[in-house]
Amino acid sequence: MTGFDFAAWPPTLTEAQLEELSVYATTYALSHGLLYLPPAPSLPKVPTAAIHAPLALFPSPLPRKLFEQATRLQRIYNVLYSRVALDDEFLDQVMGVETGVGKVDDFIGQLWRGWKALRDEGIDQSLHLGIFRSDYLLHSPNGETPELKQVEFNTISSSFGPLSQRVSELHRYLLSTTGYFNTSPYLSLENLPPNQTISGVAAGLAAAHSAYSASTSNARILVVAQDNERNVFDQRWLEYELLNKHSIRMIRRTLTQLQKVAKVDSTTRKLFIDVPKDLEASGSIEISVIYFRAAYTPHDFPTPAYYATRFLLERSTAIKCPSLALQLAGGKKVQEVLTQAGVLERFLADGKKYHEVFSKEEIQELRDSFMAMWGLDVGDDLLTPDGQAIQAGKENFGVRKAREEAQVLVLKPQREGGGNNVYKQDIPAFLDTLPPQERQAWIAMQLIVTPADVGNYLIRAGSTTGSSDIQAPVRTNVISELGIFGWSIFGKEGGHSHVKEDTMGWLVRTKGTDSNEGGVATGFSVLDSLLLV
Ligand code: ADP
Ligand code: MG
Ligand code: MG
User: Please, what is the Cα angle at 415 between 326 and 379, to 5 degrees?
Assistant: First the structure.
């Protein structure tokens, strides 16, 4: 259908309708594992209570052709980032400690050094697994027809696949059981696209598992979890799917635990996890795939021993999701470098290097999904090697441009997980205090201008224990961020890269327009689904 009125979304509900819908929604969420562990200073070892994840009551509208476009682009993005991860020379240059971001960003530098040390020993990954999520917002400056623009591409710990499937199912259920009180003709099942992220992500993990262990049926997939993870149900759904559909078992450990129990055999380089004999007779479990839902932020590495453990895992023959190379490939700096002239062509159009190349039109469509970006260090030749401006008071091009255009920009460091960016009016003061040598760690990105006035009703659990009544949800003006999930298994054989990939489900996170940041885990956003219009 065309002519959808975004400003009139969602339909206005009466108080009675809103309450009815809220009860259906939260009880469905609680019954179907659309859950979070409640916030607590330290989480109990044995959880006994959960709260429902923050939710939108209505699905959020998105033009059908932009959803199709995002889904179509995922295949090229899967291949692109796989090839970036296989290009040591490129990653050394962009992320390494000699010429790249690793020079000025300690976290990136540590990861890169660990990877380089293994390569110097002759240890390379035969196969890598990526579980990706490419995130988009609609860009509609001056109310123009909205276009799809990429926010970022995640190569590590891409989360909320399973819970987003549950929210899609929730909105279908609300439609089936209440008809949303016939408040909109757009609310029909054919406008709510299916979302099979759980089976999709599990299929990626299972494919890597069988690539590793055709012979060793006892190997398990290791989930590396954060110490105080509250988003455990999103991870458990994958565990249950792997067990039920693929007969593959998972084991969860934190980096803290792994310091003591991870062992890599010195000849075979197989990874084993020690477990008490009363739990597993052999006292040790072989690992086929390491799925990182941690290790993406410096907070996950409080001491050097944590880095040593991360590199021990990398040394093993278990397939990493992601490898250090693939984690580095997901850096914001790489995203910016990909916008530079000729870089996409290097990875997508070089027929001498790659069996499969992409057409000019396909590459153009990918490029059209980029916003303008540049490094804050552009024009840094004005600096002396110790980072002093040659002419006092004179700023390099990258910083000057960021200052001039601050109102339409976001600055991003090489971090994941939300809460790290600097927006608009905060930019000039931030630039005043940024030491010149740290410019290289930051990119400037033009802000995506989302269509105004779309609304939704958002529900968050009312108290930390989930026991008190929720506040009646109120209509809020919102921005919705679409994420498309893809996976990829790749490696080099006889010098040639090969990539097997697939596109599966999607995620919508919706936040109030008063927040610059997104992120469900950080408390800014709620989980949502799609209404195709
Ligand atoms: P992270 O890896 O921490 O999730 P993101 O690049 O996704 O970092 O930025 C966090 C949030 O900031 C996004 O979810 C989005 O809401 C907002 N954001 C990031 N880039 C832009 C942009 N170019 N325009 C508008 N909002 C943005
Ligand atoms: Mg993000
Ligand atoms: Mg990210």
Answer: 95
